[in-house]
Amino acid sequence: MGLRLSIAGEEFRMVASPEVLGAVAERYGSFVTAARGTLRNRKPITIEIRCRPDRFAPAYERPVEAHARESAPGEITLAGAVCGHYSIAARQGSIEDASGLGAVDSLLRMALSAALPLDGALLLHGAALPKGRARGIALCGASGSGKSTAAAALGAFCDELVVLRPSESGLQLHSTPYWTGRPFRARCTAVVCLVRGGDPGVVRLRGAAATRALAPHVVRYVAVERIDRAVLGLLCSIGSCVGVRLASCPEGADFIPFLRGKLRFEKNAA
């Protein structure tokens, strides 16, 4: 049996037993779709989940730790707590003996990180903040930077992973299912990279400086030359599409008011 998901312009076809597909449908909720609408007429990414139904725990768990490597050109193998495989060219993956949704999440993230750059988009550690009905801000930040705090306070559509897609009409921002994400697509008016410490302020970065600030937030599980070249080109495109800002924020109770004020300033300046 099959189930379709639509995440940031990529369509997934999930193949598993009815019990497993029911758990996947509940987990991904509003990202489940009945319609086929793949980007540039590409075929869906097919994910086959193999397991013994009596050993699959439907309760949601965080993605489990897995080690990824390119075992052959264009072929990625997952080992450790997740045993799986993903073929870049075939756009097909599988999980062996999945114990729960954490294993499914691990392969989905891997597939997104590999497929998106080849389709002209980047998967980033970040939150998708609304800035009106058709506009948004990508808020990126390392662990401890305050991204999750800001996401909760500012009404983010997702907090952990976002997708940026440059196009002729500008930069598009997409949400993902993580965490408790809701579907969201909007024109991205700014990319803000959070840092803690130093004098509070926001600096606009250009050229190589913008690329260097954004690069650490790219989600990349394994080095594949073809994908890495695409990532570098997209980083340069994003920097030229919108302003990349480096926001040094105060600690404590002043953090959210400071950031809210700065984002409101960006809205007026856009």
Q: What's the total count of β strands?
A: 14
Shape: globular
- Rounded average pLDDT: 90
What's the level 1 CATH class of the largest domain? Alpha Beta
Low-confidence stretches: none
- Describe the largest sheet: 7 strands, mixed
**Helix count, DSSP H or I runs of 4 or more residues:** 6
Please indicate the percent range of residues in DSSP E strands (runs of 2 or more).
25-35%
| Helix/sheet category | alpha+beta
Kindly describe this structure.
Helix 2 packs across helix 5 and helix 4 packs across helix 5. This protein folds into two domains: 2-118, no CATH class; 122-269, Phosphoenolpyruvate Carboxykinase, domain 3 (Alpha-Beta Complex). Strands 1-2-3-7-6-5-4 form a seven-stranded mixed sheet, with helices on one face. It is α+β, with helices and mostly antiparallel strands and 270 residues long. It starts with a strand and ends with a helix. The model has no long low-confidence stretch (mean pLDDT 90). It has six helices and 14 strands.
